[in-house]
Amino acid sequence: MVRRFAEGGFVGEGRMVLVGVVMGSRSDWPTMKAASDILTALEIPHEARVLSAHRTPDAMFAYAEAAAGRGLRAIIAGAGGAAHLPGMLAAKTRVPVLGVPVQSRALSGLDSLLSIVQMPKGVPVGTLAIGEAGAANAGLLAAAMLATTDAALAARLDAWRAALTAAVPELPFDPAE
Ligand code: RP5
């Protein structure tokens, strides 16, 4: 059973949170919701939080420092512009960080992408595509990582992927029209 919290976080009833979905601003939520929706669909206990590398650096560090001890298995971090959040989190925790470049107003997310993807050797961030597709794929990638040690989740992920395949039409047009 998965329930929605008022602040936009989701966790399974009575289960430990496994994935953190964090973002630099509330304005990132329409994008990052795609990650949360995937995790919800796959029944993965997770939470959603606003943490900013620039505006709330102390809260960001505290979150990263506590992540492994809390049992988080992955952090999905989305940010736009000078998007330091995923890299700074990765600098402070060994929990895998998946970075989502949020589409920015000024440069359409290219700034976000380059900020997140060009990590120096030694502190990796797994970088996804710009925008909602990247956020959804971050959710799927986190699910795939967790599925390596969770057979029930592996079955749910396989079913999700089978449904995706089944939804692809054979013809490029509707023959009834
Ligand atoms: C970043 O600045 C956030 O991740 C967001 O994408 C961007 C703009 O934030 P707001 O000005 O909308 O709060 O920190």
UniProtKB/TrEMBL annotation:
InterPro entries named in the record: PurE_ClassI (IPR033747), PurE_dom (IPR000031), PurE_prokaryotes (IPR024694)
Catalytic activity: 5-carboxyamino-1-(5-phospho-D-ribosyl)imidazole + H(+) = 5-amino-1-(5-phospho-D-ribosyl)imidazole-4-carboxylate
Keywords: Isomerase, Purine biosynthesis
Entry GO MF terms: 5-(carboxyamino)imidazole ribonucleotide mutase activity
BP terms from Gene Ontology: 'de novo' IMP biosynthetic process
Domain of life of the native organism: Bacteria
Any Pfam family hit: AIRC
Protein family: Belongs to the AIR carboxylase family. Class I subfamily.
Function: Catalyzes the conversion of N5-carboxyaminoimidazole ribonucleotide (N5-CAIR) to 4-carboxy-5-aminoimidazole ribonucleotide (CAIR).
HAMAP family (alphabetical): PurE_classI
Protein name from the UniProt record: N5-carboxyaminoimidazole ribonucleotide mutase
Protein species of origin: Rubrimonas cliftonensis
Lineage of source species: Bacteria, Pseudomonadati, Pseudomonadota, Alphaproteobacteria, Rhodobacterales
Annotated gene: purE
